[in-house]
Every structure is written in C-alpha cells, then in structure tokens.
Amino acid sequence: MTAIQICALIALIAFAALLVWASYKMGHTDGKTLGNKEGDEIQRAESAKTICELKASLNFNKADHIHLVQFSSRLQKVSASGEIERHLLLNIAEKLRIAAEIYNAFRTGKKLERDTRALRDQVLAMAVLLGPTTQGSPA
C-alpha cells in the first residue's frame, strides 16, 4: 500500500467516524425533541383529565349548594310560620286538659278522660316539635 492509499484510508475512516458521530448527535437531538413533545402531550392529557374531574366536582357542588339553599329557605319558612301553630297547639292542649278534668269530675266518662289526656299528650308533643330550636342543635 502506498502512502496516498494509507492517507485516503485514514481519511475515509475519519469521515465515517465523523458521519457516525454527526448522525448520533442528530438522532439524540431528535429523540430529545420527540420525548419532550410526548411528555408535554402526556402532561396535557393528565391536566385535561384533572380539569374534567374538577368540573364534575364543581357541578356536583353547585347542585348540592342549590339543594341546600332550597332546604334552608324551606326551614326558615317553616320556623317562621311554626310559632303560630305552636301557640295554637298549646291552646288546644289547655282546652283538652280542662275537658279531661271535667270528664274526671263527672266520674262517668273514664274512656273520654283517657282519650282526652292521650290527645293532649299528642298535641303537646307536636307543640314541642314546633318549638324554637337552639343554634347548636341539629335540625
């Protein structure tokens, strides 16, 4: 082999090595770019999933809030009108107590007396349910 052939062989090997190194670097750069794109897409998909879950949770909480507002307004209406009914029931209970004492005085209406006292107890129980509740007690 002549000197020119040896130099050409060395140049070809160096050129091939340079070509392999340049291809490796370009492939590495392309791989990094592609990996970053895939990572971003995965992150976007996870973020979209999280956003959908949060929207569903928000819609559920909105519906629950609307239900609680309606329930609260009904409770306020009942508590406002319940005081009148409570006083009416207490008056009925007092009249039933008087009727029970009258039946007891005649000694002939034992069944009427028992029925009247039972009705009075029921009316008093209803009046207690309509009574004002304290702030800490559950509804």
List the helices and strands and how they pair.
Blueprint: H1 3-106, H2 110-130
Question: Quick gist of this model?
Answer:
This protein has helices at residues 3-106, 110-130. With 139 residues, the protein is an all-alpha fold. The longest helix is centred in the middle third of the chain and has 104 residues, at 3-106.
Q: What does the model show?
A:
This protein has 139 residues and is mainly α. It has a domain at 39-130. It is 90% helix and 0% strand. α1 (3-106) packs antiparallel against α2. The longest helix is centred in the middle third of the chain and has 104 residues, at 3-106. 4% of the residues are buried.
